[in-house]
Design brief:
The chain is α/β, with parallel strands linked by helices and 293 residues long. The protein has 2 domains: 147 residues, D-Maltodextrin-Binding Protein, domain 2 (3-Layer(aba) Sandwich), CATH 3.40.190.10; 92 residues, 3-Layer(aba) Sandwich (D-Maltodextrin-Binding Protein, domain 2), CATH 3.40.190. It is 38% helix and 24% strand. It contains 10 helices and 11 strands. The strands form 3 sheets. The chain has a 5-stranded mixed β-sheet with strand order 9-8-10-7-11, with helices on both faces. Strand 3 and strand 4 form a beta hairpin. It is globular.
């Protein structure tokens, strides 16, 4: 009888331990600067070449930087750069395997080895730099706020007591949480969800990179960017897994080399000019050779 009781207790203890382990692995914090994921070794450049594919994480719903068009093809400013990386590293633009990301899992996917590079409109911050290794910047950006023209938000003070839509894990969420706690934030996982919420009236305004909200407002009648610049001028850069200096250094040399042909200005003309027209000077956005003017 004692042996049976001991066996039952041991079994229960083992089950409890398993359940506790499962519970502790769940991460309910969607901020990409705070997620903790079991780290998998990053692939070396030789391993990438041997495989013949480089895995690059991009957005699929952030027009015009990374999005799937009406024909089901991935397009955008970040995607244009990703294809060039594949061509120069592996000999073909088709050698890139695109992995679709959400803002909140950009760090997680790098740490888990699911992707080699994040090219998902990733703003460089000190906190993120503790989690990933950023390459040289290829774009500069600030935050903007878009709202309905019928109730246009032109000053942050107007947002007090109102609902501001943000996407989890973005600099907009961090900025307004820290600088303006009086503003009610309505948070979504994906950009499309956020824009749908704005269109449906579930929020009074939406904040993200000014380059994106300006493009969206041009494509959606009745909406306007009333606050074109808020917060600091930041930079956008590719990121690799923390410690993967080999791939980061390769990307840096690639960016320096591409400056000779004004690559990112060409990228702007191909992917952004059709959206912005003359409303944005490329010099406000483009960074060549990793040097910010």
């Amino acid at each position: 009888m004692k042996k049976k009781l001991v066996g039952v207790v041991v079994a229960i203890s083992m089950i409890a331990g398993v359940l506790a382990g499962c519970g502790s692995s769940k991460n309910t914090n969607a901020d990409d600067t705070k997620q903790t994921t079991a780290k998998a070794a990053a692939r070396s450049i030789d391993q990438i070449k041997k495989d013949g594919k480089i895995k690059i994480g991009v957005f699929s719903d952030k027009n015009p930087f990374g999005y799937v068009d009406a024909n089901g093809k991935i397009q955008g400013y970040d995607v244009y750069f990703a294809k060039r990386i594949a061509k120069d590293l592996l000999g073909s633009e088709d050698a890139v395997e695109f992995v679709y990301l959400e803002a909140a899992n950009r760090v997680e996917y790098l740490a888990a080895g699911k992707i080699d590079i994040t090219l998902a409109n990733f703003t460089v911050t000190e906190e993120r730099s503790q989690k990933v290794d950023f390459a040289l910047p290829y774009m500069k950006v600030a935050l903007g706020v878009v709202s309905s023209e019928k109730a246009l938000i032109t000053d942050v003070a107007q947002l007090k007591g109102k609902k501001l839509i943000v996407v989890k894990g973005t600099t907009a969420e961090t900025y307004f949480s820290e600088k303006h706690p009086e503003i009610n934030l309505v948070k979504f996982d994906e950009y499309q969800e956020a824009y749908d919420a704005l269109l449906d009236g579930r929020g009074d305004a939406f904040s993200t990179d000014n380059t994106e909200v300006l493009a969206w407002a041009l494509q959606n009648k009745g909406f306007k960017v009333g606050i074109e610049t808020i917060g600091d001028i930041d930079t956008i850069a590719a990121a690799v897994q923390k410690g993967n200096t080999e791939l980061r250094d390769w990307i840096n040399e690639e960016i320096k080399s591409l400056a000779k042909e004004n690559f990112f200005h060409k990228d702007f003309e191909e992917t952004l000019r059709p959206v912005y027209g003359d409303s944005i000077d490329p010099e406000q956005l483009v960074v060549e050779g990793g040097k910010v003017d």
